[in-house]
Task: inverse folding
C-alpha cells in the first residue's frame, strides 16, 4: 500500500482563491481554461516561483482533470485534508472561550456538507465535527466546490464516536442542542453556556445514541404542510438562531 497522500481537486475560482489565501504552498498543480486564466495571475506567479505545474488546457481536458463538468474554469490539485479528533485540552479551551461548534451526525450527501460548511463560515463558526462513520461524507471535491470557499475557513475534526464526543462537550460545560424534526423546544436560550449544534442524517435524523447524548433538542416550528426542511436549510435557520442572532 502506497504512503503517498491522497489528492483531491478544488474546483471553481472562489474555492481556489480561498485555498491560495489560506495556504498557498498546498496547491500542487493548477489547470485552467483561457478565460479563467486571466484572473489567476498572482497564483500562477507564485506557482512559477515554486517551480510547480500550472497550465491552460482545453475545456475537454479540464473536464477530464476535474472529473466533472462543474469545474468553474479552474482546478487546483491539493492533498486531501488530514482529519483528527480534538484533544481534551482543546475541548476545554473551546469551552473556556465559549467557542460555538457544529456537529454533523452522518450527513451523507457531499453537497449538503458543502452547503452547511458555507453557512457555518458565513456565520463565523470555526469548527465542524464529523464522525468516522461509513455513511458520513468527508471533505472532498464536491463538498469543497459547493462550499464556495467555506471549508477553507473551517477546521474539520473527525471523531470515532459522535455520541461520546457530545457527552464530553456536555461535561465540559456545553449546551449540546440536537436538531429534531419534532419534539424539541423552539427557543434558543442556552443559559449562558457555549453551544454545540448537532445536525442529523438527511433521511434518519439524529441517531438514538446521539439524541440521548444531547442536553436538549431544538425544533423549527413550521406549517406542517411538509414534514421537514432539507438539512442544509434547517442548519442555516438554526445557525442564525443559535449563533448569528447573538452577535446582532
Result:
Amino acid at each position: 500500500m502506497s504512503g503517498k497522500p491522497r489528492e483531491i481537486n478544488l474546483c471553481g475560482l472562489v474555492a481556489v482563491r480561498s485555498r491560495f489565501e489560506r495556504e498557498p504552498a498546498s496547491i500542487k498543480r493548477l489547470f485552467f481554461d483561457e478565460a479563467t486564466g486571466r484572473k489567476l495571475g498572482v497564483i500562477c506567479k507564485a506557482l512559477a516561483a515554486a517551480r510547480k505545474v500550472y497550465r491552460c488546457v482545453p475545456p475537454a481536458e479540464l473536464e477530464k482533470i476535474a472529473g466533472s463538468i462543474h469545474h468553474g474554469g479552474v482546478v487546483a490539485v491539493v492533498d486531501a485534508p488530514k482529519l483528527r479528533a480534538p484533544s481534551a485540552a482543546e475541548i476545554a479551551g473551546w469551552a473556556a472561550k465559549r467557542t460555538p461548534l457544529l456537529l454533523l451526525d452522518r450527513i451523507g450527501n457531499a453537497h449538503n456538507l458543502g452547503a452547511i460548511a458555507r453557512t457555518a463560515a458565513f456565520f463565523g463558526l470555526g469548527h465542524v465535527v464529523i464522525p468516522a462513520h461509513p455513511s458520513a461524507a468527508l471533505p472532498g471535491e464536491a463538498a469543497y466546490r459547493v462550499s464556495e470557499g467555506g471549508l477553507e475557513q473551517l477546521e474539520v475534526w473527525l471523531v470515532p464516536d459522535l455520541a461520546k464526543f457530545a457527552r464530553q462537550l456536555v461535561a465540559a460545560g456545553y449546551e449540546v442542542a440536537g436538531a429534531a424534526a419534532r419534539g424539541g423546544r423552539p427557543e434558543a436560550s442556552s443559559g449562558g453556556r457555549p453551544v454545540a449544534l448537532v445536525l442529523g442524517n438527511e433521511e434518519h435524523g439524529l441517531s438514538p445514541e446521539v439524541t440521548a447524548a444531547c442536553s436538549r433538542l431544538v425544533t423549527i416550528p413550521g406549517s406542517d404542510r411538509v414534514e421537514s426542511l432539507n438539512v442544509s436549510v434547517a442548519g442555516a435557520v438554526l445557525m442564525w438562531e443559535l449563533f448569528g442572532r447573538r452577535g446582532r
